[in-house]
Each structure stands twice: as C-alpha cells, then as structure tokens.
C-alpha cells in the first residue's frame, strides 16, 4: 500500500516574531499576559515538526498534535495580523523537497491539513490487515486521508504555494485517486475469492483499475510528469492494468455460467478471459517490477492463462459460441467510497488558555473587521459578476456559431479530440462529479448551521423578553426599567436581515440542486477515462483536408481561450489579495482615536484599484478576441464547401462540451455559496457577541433592581442568571465598555 509523504517544516518562534508588533500596540502588562500562551504555540509547532519522523505507534498522537496546532493558528489569525509581524513559516514540498516560505495563516493551515491527510495515509498503509479489525482501521484511515486532502483541494489558489507540487490540484487529485483505489483494494482483499460473489469481485477490481488509471494519467500530465520517478508511474500503470485484467477474469465466471444454462453467451466469458490475458500481459511488461508486486502479477498471469485455455477448450468442444470483440464488453464501477473529514480530528474548538488573547483585539475592532471584509467581498462579487457577464456573452456567441463542436467534429482524429479531453481532464483534476456532489452536501450543512445560530439567537432574546415580562407583572410599577423589546430592536433587526440573506441563499442553493439533478446524465460522462470516451465517439465517415480558414478559426479559438484564462488569473490574484488583507492594526488606531471608519475603509479599499483596472483591460481584450472568432467563423463558413461531419459524433461532442460548461458554472456558483456562508458565519459570530453582551448587561441590571426592590442594599441577591452560559466567568469584554 502507498502512503503520502508528510510535508517537512522548520521550527518557528511565534512569540518572538510577534513581540515587536505587540510592544508597538499594547502595554507591558498585555505583553506579559499573552506571552505564555504564544510561547506554548512554539511547543505545539515543534510537535508538528517532529511528525516527519514519527513511528507507526505514534501516528494517532501526531494527528491530534497537528489538529491542536491548527486550532492554535485559527485563534491567533484573527488577533495578530501576520503582515504586521516578523512571523513566517517554512515548509518543504514533499515531492521535490524544495523549501518555501509561508507568509499567511491560511497557507499554514493548508499545509497542516495536507499533513493530517499524509499521517492518516501512513496509518492506513502500515496497518496489518491480518490483525484485529485491520481492514476496518485501514479503510477508515484512507477515507480520512481522502477527506483531509479534499478539504485542501476545495480551497482557492490563495491557499497554495507557487511552484509547489504537492498542493497543486493535479497532485491532490492523483493522491485522492490512489487512496480511493486502496480503499477498494482493502475490500477486495477481505473478500473470499473462492466463495465470494464473482460479480462483486469484478466490480471491485474494475473500480480499483479506474482509480489507479486516473492517478496514472495525472502522474504523466505536463504538470507532474517531471517531478515523479518512472518507478512510481510504472507502479500506478501496473496496478491499473492488473485490476482491469482481474475484473474481466472474475466477470467471465457468471457469464460462462449463464451461457451453460442458456446454451448461448458462453463466448462472452471467453472474450472476457482473452481481454484479461491481454491486459495482464501488458501489466507484466511494465518496467521495474520486482519483489511482491512481481509475484502478484505472475500469479495473476498464471491464473488467467489457465482459465482462458480451459474456457477456450470448452467453447470449442461443447458450446461453439461466437466470441464478441473486447470493446463491446461492459464494466460496472462502484461508488461506495467518498472522502470524509475525519470525525476524530477536532479543528474547530479552542485551545486551553486562549482567553488571554481577548485583550489584543476589542470587540469593536472585530465588528469593524467583519464589516470591512463584507465590503471587500462585495467588491470581489462585482468583479466576478463583470467577468461572468462577458463569459455569458462569449458562450452565447459560440453556441450560436456551433463552436467549438463544429471544428472538433470535423477533425480527422479518431475518438475524442484532444482539445475536449483537456477540458474534461481539468474537470476531473478539480474533483469532477463527486466534488459537485460533496459541495452541494457541504452547502446544505453550512446553511443548517447558520439557520440554527439564528434560531438560537432569536430564542435567547425571546426568553429574556419573557423573563422581563414576568418580572414586570410580578413587581408592577416598581419594575422601573425599559422593556426588552424597546432595547433589543436593533439586534432583532440584524437577525431579520441575516434571515433574509439566508433565505435568498437557500433559493440559489435549490436552483443549483435542480441544475445538478437535471444534468446528471451528461455530468456522469465526465467521470469516464479517455479510453472509455474514445469508444463512444465514432470517427468521421469522410475525412477532410483542413483549409486555411479552418486553421485560422482554430487559432482564434485558442486565443479566445487564452484571453479567458488571463482574466480568470487576474480575478484569482484579486481574491488572493483580499483574503490576505488584514487591517487590524489600522482599526486599533481608529478605535483608540475615535475616528470615523469611512476614511480608513476608503483608503484601504483603494489598494485594490490597480488590480480592478487590470481586470477591466483583460475583459476588453476578451471581447476583442471574441470579435476575431466571429470574423474567422464567417470566413470559414464561406469557404468550407461540402465538408460534413458524422451527426452522432457531433451529438456526443456537444453533450461533452455542455457537460463541461454546466460543471464550470455549477462549481463557480457553489464556490460563491461557500464564501457567502463563511462571511455570514463571521457576521453571526459578531452578532452572538452583541446578544451575549446585551443579555449580560440586562441580567446585571435585573439583579440590581431586584436587590433594590427587596431592600437588601448592596448585597448580592436576586434571581439566578439563566444566560450564564455565555460568560460563565463574567463578561470578558467588560473592560472595553
């Protein structure tokens, strides 16, 4: 079994690198208060450094240590702006061993998520399958590893290192495919080959082949080919061919049994065995086979050859059934294994002692940060909308001209044109069909979490109102304070506002779900490998000689594609800059000086004007490229003459192009949905603090009033605080009132 190598990292002195920033903005007492907690973070990170060399029996502890340090980083990222400190982290690419500086908290967390996946993959690969619950432990470990890597893959480019191989979508997808294949290998290993259901064995083997084949295709892609050794790529190729052969081998048994009963169809089983023999022979020709892998292949070869010769003899002497071509044989893939984030890993809760950091950033600054981030995300949304508009113009124009299907369908290539395969491969690298499915599930869960938060906040205010009404009735005119409804109107208005935004998001999510459901058939095609798609697409009945107009049209389409890539890249950089922007230091000064927020916000937002202007220029260039395509298409239509294409070929290529478009549109919408829920969660956190402060202050006021009415002077008394769960040790924000 294969495991993913852990990313190595160097030790970092967190407090020492943050000390200058803290001294600049806070007094000595504050420095001494936060010193122990930040120094403890150094110890947490040292434990992460040690995971590169951890023994097998220390893997579970290493996983928990990595998760704890992840939580520590989550705590300090909203309290200490990394750009204002001397703090930086150093990581090494696990593939090419190159050293890279990491200058953002988000990227630090990405590397930690990757390492969680790598540690789980080791746990799965090194577990003895013959031990107690060995298969179950290894299977869960591989699924957990897939879940961690899938979380990394879902993150944007701002969470990746430039020129770093192991965090690229291509490498992540390759590793997820390997882990998926090994999950099915464990199921295959567990089944008894003599008594087990042969159809299930065939399905398992084919699914293993499919995932190893996807991993192999990724390993030889332009992005990864030079960074992985030939032995590794050959091993993936061997496993793919071996299990394709085994799938045909096992499927031959039920087909021959059916042929014996019906008197026809036995030849299909023989065809399966011939196909199995063809593929196991190719597998054994793979360079570099040795040891246990070679023995596995040789045993499979002997088993398949023996069964093939037996079946051929029976067919010749008894059944004399026709033997179909191998390409007419069908295969069925299993879809049981999905990435799941490991339940035992806690990356959400806090770390003991985190309360001391509350003194670094007052609640007013946290609220301003949320407001500023909302403005930035609205700015990004506007730019995304502008780019979306011009893309829709492009898609509509190309569709009206029948492009690019018209050119691809006339191609003299047999099978799937390379231009379309590249698009499908990009979809598969990004996670493909299953990524959309997981994103839809994730959106639903995020939505439910936000709905629960809003319901809880409404319930908290309602309970406080009911208590106030009860006390007002009990004490009559003596209950001389303002009603809760009068004072919490602003909070309820915020809750209603967020409910409205959430309901709008739910409508969009339902629209995405309908699009997903109505395009299932075409999206399913994006799961297929190139060989499978090649067999679906007929060649042109008549070949044509490409003329100058056709070549110029192709070139203009390539230029249009490059223009679209360029504008997408500019948007990606803008999003990256927005994610990294942190103005806590400026907001601290603003709050301290009691200045209006508008001037600071405007000054900070103006930093992004050059990138917005760059996007405008590239949008203009994209429209210009589209105009050139229209001109070249007119010329092509004028001179193309009687060139005809196979209608069935056009239909399938159009379906594939449409599937890619639907995928890209859905992926973009779902990504925006995840960003919306992330922003909403930030605002709800601020609102929760406001509600908690309101409840706390009302409770103090209530107790004082009850004490006064009861005539007990300054003694502590009154009803107990039913909202103490918000601040069991008192209000931590009290010093800022």
UniProtKB/TrEMBL annotation:
Q: Would I find Cytoplasm among this entry's keywords?
A: yes
Q: Where in the cell is it found?
A: Cytoplasm; Endosome
Q: Where along the sequence do coiled-coil regions lie?
A: none
PROSITE patterns of this UniProt entry?
BRO1
- Top-level taxon in the UniProt lineage: Eukaryota
| Gene Ontology BP term (one) | protein transport to vacuole involved in ubiquitin-dependent protein catabolic process via the multivesicular body sorting pathway
Decide whether keyword Cytoplasm is in the record.
yes
Q: Where is the BRO1 domain?
A: 1-405
Which Gene3D superfamilies has this protein been placed in?
Answer: alix/aip1 in complex with the ypdl late domain (1.20.120.560), alix/aip1 like domains (1.25.40.280)
Q: Where is this region: Disordered?
A: 712-737
Quote a single Gene Ontology cellular component term.
endosome
UniProtKB keywords: Cytoplasm, Endosome
Q: Which InterPro entries match?
A: ALIX_V_dom, BRO1_dom, BRO1_sf
Q: Please state what the protein is called.
A: BRO1 domain-containing protein
């Amino acid at each position: 079994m294969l495991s993913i190598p852990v990313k190595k990292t160097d030790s970092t002195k967190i407090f020492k690198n943050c000390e200058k920033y803290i001294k600049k903005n806070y007094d000595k007492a504050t420095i001494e208060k936060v010193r122990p907690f930040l120094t403890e973070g150094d110890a947490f990170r040292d434990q992460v450094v040690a995971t590169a060399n951890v023994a097998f029996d220390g893997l579970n502890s290493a996983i928990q240590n990595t998760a704890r340090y992840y939580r520590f980083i989550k705590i300090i990222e909203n309290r200490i702006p990394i750009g204002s400190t001397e703090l930086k982290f150093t990581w090494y690419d696990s593939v090419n061993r190159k050293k890279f500086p990491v200058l953002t908290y988000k990227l630090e967390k990405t590397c930690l998520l990757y390492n969680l996946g790598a540690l789980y993959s080791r746990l799965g690969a090194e577990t003895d399958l013959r031990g107690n619950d060995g298969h179950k432990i290894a299977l869960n470990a591989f699924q957990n590893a897939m879940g961690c890597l899938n979380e990394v893959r879902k993150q944007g480019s701002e969470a990746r290192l430039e020129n770093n191989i192991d965090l690229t979508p291509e490498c992540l997808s390759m590793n997820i495919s390997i882990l998926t294949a090994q999950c099915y290998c464990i199921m295959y290993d567990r089944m008894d080959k003599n008594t087990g259901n042969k159809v299930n064995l065939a399905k398992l083997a084919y699914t293993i082949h499919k995932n190893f084949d996807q991993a192999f295709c990724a390993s030889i892609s332009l992005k990864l080919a030079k960074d992985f050794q030939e032995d590794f790529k050959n091993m993936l190729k061997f496993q793919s061919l071996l299990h394709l052969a085994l799938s045909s081998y096992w499927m031959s048994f039920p087909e021959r049994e059916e042929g014996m009963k019906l008197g026809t169809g036995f030849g299909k089983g023989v065809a399966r065995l011939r196909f199995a023999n063809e593929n196991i022979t190719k597998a054994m020709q793979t360079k570099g086979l040795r040891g246990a892998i070679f023995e596995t292949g040789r045993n499979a070869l002997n088993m398949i050859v023996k069964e093939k010769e037996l079946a051929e003899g029976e067919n010749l002497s008894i059944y004399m059934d026709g033997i179909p071509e191998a390409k007419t044989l069908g295969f069925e893939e299993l879809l049981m294994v999905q990435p799941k984030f490991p339940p035992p890993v806690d990356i959400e809760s806090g770390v003991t002692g985190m309360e001391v950091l509350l003194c670094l950033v007052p609640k007013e600054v946290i609220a301003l940060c949320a407001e500023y981030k909302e403005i930035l995300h609205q700015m990004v949304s506007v730019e995304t909308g502008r780019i979306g508009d011009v893309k829709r113009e492009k898609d509509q124009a190309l569709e009206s001209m029948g492009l690019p299907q018209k050119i691809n369908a006339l191609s003299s290539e047999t099978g799937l044109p390379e231009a379309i395969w590249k698009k499908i491969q990009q979809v598969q690298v990004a996670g493909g069909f299953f990524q959309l499915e997981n994103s839809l599930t994730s959106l639903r869960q995020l939505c439910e979490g936000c709905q629960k938060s809003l319901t809880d906040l409404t319930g908290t205010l309602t309970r406080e109102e009911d208590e106030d009404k009860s006390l007002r009735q009990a004490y009559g005119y003596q209950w001389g304070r303002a009603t809760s409804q009068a004072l919490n109107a602003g909070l309820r208005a915020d809750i209603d506002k967020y409910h409205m935004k959430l309901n709008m998001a739910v409508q969009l999510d339902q629209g995405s779900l309908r699009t997903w459901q109505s395009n299932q058939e075409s999206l399913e095609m994006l799961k297929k490998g190139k060989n499978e798609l090649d067999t679906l697409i007929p060649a042109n009945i008549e070949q044509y000689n490409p003329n100058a107009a056709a070549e110029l049209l192709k070139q203009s389409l390539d230029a249009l594609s490059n223009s679209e890539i360029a504008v997408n890249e500019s948007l990606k950089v803008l999003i990256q800059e927005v994610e990294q922007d942190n103005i806590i230091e400026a907001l601290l000064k603003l709050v301290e000086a009691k200045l209006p927020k508008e001037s600071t916000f405007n000054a900070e937002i103006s930093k992004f004007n050059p990138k917005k202007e760059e996007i405008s220029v590239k949008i203009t260039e994209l429209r210009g490229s589209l105009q050139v395509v229209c001109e070249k298409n007119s010329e092509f239509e004028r001179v193309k003459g009687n060139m005809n294409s196979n209608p069935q070929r056009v239909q399938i290529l159009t379906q594939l192009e449409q599937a890619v478009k639907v995928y890209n549109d859905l992926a973009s919408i779902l990504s925006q949905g995840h960003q919306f829920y992330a922003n909403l969660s930030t605002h709800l956190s601020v609102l929760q603090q406001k509600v908690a402060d309101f409840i706390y202050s009302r409770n103090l006021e209530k107790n004082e009033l009850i004490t006064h009415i009861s005539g007990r002077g300054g003694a502590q008394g009154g009803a107990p605080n039913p909202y103490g769960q918000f601040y069991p040790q008192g209000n931590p924000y009290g010093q800022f009132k």
